[in-house]
Amino acid sequence: MLRKGCWRLQARLCFLYRSVQVSKSGHRKLVSCIDPSMGLNEEQKEFQKVAFNFAAQEMAPNMAEWDQKELFPVEMMQKAAQLGFGGVYVRTDVGGSGLSRLDTSIIFEALATGCTSTTAYISIHNMCVWMIDTFGNEEQRHKFCPPLCTMTKFASYCLTEPESGSDAASLLTSAKRQGDHYILNGSKAFISGGGESDIYVVMCRTGGPGPKGISCIIVEKGTPGLSFGKKEKKVGWNSQPTRAVIFEDCAVPVANRIGNEGQGFLIAMKGLNGGRINVASCSLGAAHASLVLTRDYLNARKQFGVPLASNQICNQALQMHGGYGYLKDYAVQQYVRDSRVHQILEGSNEVMRMLISRNLLQM
Q1: Annotation marks residue 346 as catalytic
Q2: Domain Acyl-CoA oxidase/dehydrogenase middle, which positions (predicted)?
Q3: 20 to 30 A from 124, CA-CA: which of 190, 213, 301, 306?
Q4: Which of 152, 182, 217 is the endpoint of a domain?
């Protein structure tokens, strides 16, 4: 699915950059930014339209306030869940929408035009629900997935630690079994939704060193021994809180383990395979919105008596806004800030290049 998704994203990028043409007078000028429905079937066009409309009506008007006041827009996300966006690629018997990864990419790209930061959190939430739906047993699926799909409860993905980022297999958070419980000790860093989420999908060490010693355990908010660090101050992604998640003799039922002992790293990586496509789709949505804003700005703003669009080619949206692009009154700067972290999380650009090259060598 990752490879298929990458081809899809590459095609979308081609559409994004097909935004200039040469006029009869020889000047390059902006034309229609993109046709986001190109190549989609009728059903996909319909839920893309729903996502675009929701982004325009419920997200874009509030994006700046959520960013400036660092608000976690719970009510808006619960409205999104009513449209099926709380468990987009989760099976329908536990409340999911049962859509494909391609369908999910289309939806998140559209939603991100309204608020990239919030859509990125929704994508992480979806990744967590999918992991439980795919690797959990029937009791776990029916216990945890329905309230997550309606977003009456929220989920966070807990892999990264202060000393293990890209080298996730070296994580140190331990889970020692005592009877019918695991006792967790350690901490997770940079956790989206930390402190606000109800469900924490935690990768922890139940065995020896390396990836085969890692298991996946659900920790519910309110469990004794679970606490959170201070809310991080970030450049972007301000509509979702980021905190450390801390475990101090935190007792969690063995029944909350997803999959078998030692299967956690596989589960984490399978989740990230989809999460990486989701975040890339959010980046495309930010690019789409930025190009539209820049097109409108260049057509309206004049220098030397003519629209700026007559003098420039649009390849860096904020740069084309000039000094105004650096002001918080203009939305383009927020798209830049909210999408910058996408080069780091879910696997840094450097790690992703390594994975792509490794895959190519195996073909």
Answers
A1: yes
A2: 157-250
A3: 213
A4: 152
